[in-house]
Design brief:
By secondary structure, the chain is an alpha+beta fold. The chain has one domain. The strands form two sheets. The chain has a five-stranded antiparallel beta sheet. A three-stranded antiparallel beta sheet has the order 6-7-8, with helices on one face. A hairpin with a 5-residue loop joins β4 and β5. It is rod-shaped.
Length: about 180
C-alpha cells in the first residue's frame, strides 16, 4: 500500500513532458505574434492619422493666409484655374510696386505656393492634387474680379487612401 501511494505521488510530481511544453510554447508564440501584429497595425494607423491631421492643418493655415491676402488686396491682376495674382497695396499709395504683387498657385508637385514680388515662392502646404484643385472667379477679366472661389483637394495617404476637400469663398474688401 505504501509503495502504491509512493509511486502515484512520484507520477503526479513527474512534471511536464516535452510534448506538452512544445504545445504550450507554440500557443504562446501564436498569441505573441497576434499581439505584435495588432500593435504594429495600430501604430501605422496612428502615424497615418497624424500625417493626415498635419497636412489638413497646413492647408487650413494656408487658407487663412490666402484669404487674408485676397481680403487686403486692391485688385486681382491675373487669374487662372491653378493660380492668381493680387495687388496688396501695403503703403496705400496707389502705386503698384512689384513687391506688392502676391501670387498663389498650386504647383504640379501638389504644393500650394505663395510668392510675393520677385522673391522665390514659399510652400504653404503640400499634398494637394493639382488636377482636382482649382480657383474660380466671379468674372473672367482679372481687373473685374471681386470674389474668388477656392476648391482644394488634399490627398490622404494610408491604408485607405482618400481625399479631403477644402472649399471656401473670399471677397476683396479694399476695392477702391
Amino acid at each position: 500500500m505504501r509503495r502504491a501511494r509512493r509511486s502515484r505521488r512520484l507520477r503526479d510530481e513527474a512534471g511536464v513532458s516535452l510534448v506538452e511544453l512544445a504545445i504550450t510554447m507554440a500557443g504562446l508564440a501564436l498569441i505573441s505574434t497576434a499581439i505584435v501584429a495588432f500593435l504594429v497595425g495600430t501604430t501605422r494607423v496612428d502615424q497615418a492619422q497624424a500625417a493626415d491631421d498635419s497636412a489638413q492643418e497646413a492647408v487650413r493655415d494656408a487658407r487663412g493666409r490666402l484669404a487674408k491676402d485676397i481680403r487686403e488686396a486692391r485688385r486681382f491682376t491675373a487669374v487662372s484655374p491653378t493660380s492668381f495674382t493680387v495687388w496688396v497695396d501695403d503703403e496705400w499709395d496707389g502705386v503698384m510696386a512689384s513687391a506688392e504683387l502676391v501670387t498663389w498657385s498650386v504647383e504640379s508637385t501638389g504644393a500650394l505656393v505663395r510668392a510675393a514680388g520677385e522673391a522665390a515662392g514659399r510652400v504653404e502646404a503640400r499634398g494637394l492634387s493639382q488636377s482636382d484643385s482649382r480657383f474660380t472667379y466671379d468674372h473672367t477679366v482679372a481687373a473685374q474680379v471681386t470674389r474668388a472661389y477656392l476648391h482644394l483637394i488634399l490627398g490622404v495617404a494610408g491604408p485607405q487612401a482618400t481625399s479631403r476637400s477644402v472649399d471656401f469663398e473670399v471677397s476683396l474688401r479694399n476695392v477702391p
